[in-house]
Structures are given as structure tokens and as C-alpha cells.
Specification:
Helix 2 packs antiparallel against helix 3, helix 3 packs antiparallel against helix 5 and helix 3 runs antiparallel to helix 7. The chain is elongated. It is mainly α and 178 residues long. The relative contact order is 0.16.
Length: 178
């Protein structure tokens, strides 16, 4: 997140950069409710897995875009590629948003420990904020070398998320949720 503006501005004019970010935020808002519905219908794990796959695809597209697409204007192949990447990134964020918290609650409920949820979720939120702060610092430092590196690192983290989520199983009430 700390480098997106500089990254897009290295390849696109200001109006295109602002439109790319507007597309991202519009996509997050638009996809947020349907992704929650999917998490309730299909399960938390499949929704988180879909989100991680979308994030991986997004970061890969944003990383390789300047090497495989050309153009520096609205409507150019590179702009369209970036726009699709931003849409995938927004979908990945929306699919994760709230689903991770719901999975946490479901897992505790399956273990009969739902009373611990508030304290555990507060600790999880603290760790998410600290992780985001560390990622921003590291990403900003890596961007000083090359603006594409944070996207490569984000791709690697998304692939790790896919592996972790693929190994998970959906908790169910009354069953061992380990």
C-alpha cells in the first residue's frame, strides 16, 4: 500500500493513477457484501482461499505488467492490465475482510470457547496492525530499490497464504477444530 501511488505514477499520468485507485475502492465496496454472502453460503475457508488466489493473481499482474504490456495513457493495454489487477486486488481484500474474523469465531465456537473471542480478536487485530505497519516499512524500503519489489514480495506472501489456507479445514460445531 505505501508504494501504489508512486508505482502507478511511474508508468501512468496522474489522471490514470487516480482512476486506478478509484476503481480499486469502488470494487472493494461493490464486492464486500457479495463476498460476505459467499462466506456464509460456501464456508469461510473457500472464501479465504479464493481471496488469497485473487491477491496472488493481482500482485503477479501488477508486478509483471510493465514488462508485458505497453502504454502510458487511459485505455492503453498497460492501464487495462493495471485496472484488472486492481480489481482482483480489491476482490481479494473484500473476500478476506470479515471472513477471517468469522472463521476465528467459528473455530472458537466449535471448541466451546466462544467466550474468549473478544480478547483473542483484540490480540489478533493488534497483530494485524503491527504486521501491516512492518509490511509498510519493509515495502517502502524495498521500493527505494525498485518499485516492483513490494509487489513481488506480496505475491510470495499471497502464495504462502494459499498454502496455509489449503491446509486448513472448516470448523464445525461439536467437532474437534484443531
Amino acid at each position: 500500500m505505501p508504494v501504489f501511488f508512486l508505482y502507478f505514477a511511474a508508468y501512468m499520468p496522474l489522471d490514470a493513477v487516480l482512476l486506478l485507485e478509484a476503481l480499486y475502492f469502488l470494487s472493494v465496496v461493490t464486492i464486500e457484501v457479495p463476498s460476505g454472502w459467499l462466506a456464509d453460503r460456501l464456508g469461510r475457508r473457500p472464501t479465504l482461499l479464493a481471496g488469497a488466489v485473487l491477491m496472488a493473481a493481482s500482485h503477479l499482474m501488477l508486478f509483471v505488467g510493465p514488462w508485458i504490456m505497453v502504454g502510458d495513457t487511459l485505455g492503453s493495454p498497460l492501464f487495462v492490465f493495471f485496472a484488472v489487477g486492481q480489481g482482483l486486488r480489491a476482490a481479494g481484500v473484500a473476500f478476506r475482510s470479515g471472513t477471517d474474523t468469522a472463521l476465528h469465531h467459528d473455530a472458537l465456537a466449535a471448541c466451546g470457547r466462544v467466550g474468549e473471542f473478544a480478547d483473542r480478536e483484540a490480540l489478533a487485530a493488534k497483530r494485524r496492525f503491527l504486521g501491516a505497519a512492518a509490511a509498510a516499512l519493509i515495502g517502502g524500503g524495498l521500493a527505494a530499490i525498485d518499485l516492483r519489489i513490494p509487489y513481488a514480495c506480496s505475491f510470495i506472501v499471497a502464495v504462502a497464504m494459499i498454502i496455509v489456507i489449503a491446509r486448513m479445514r472448516e470448523p464445525s460445531a461439536g467437532k474437534d477444530a484443531r
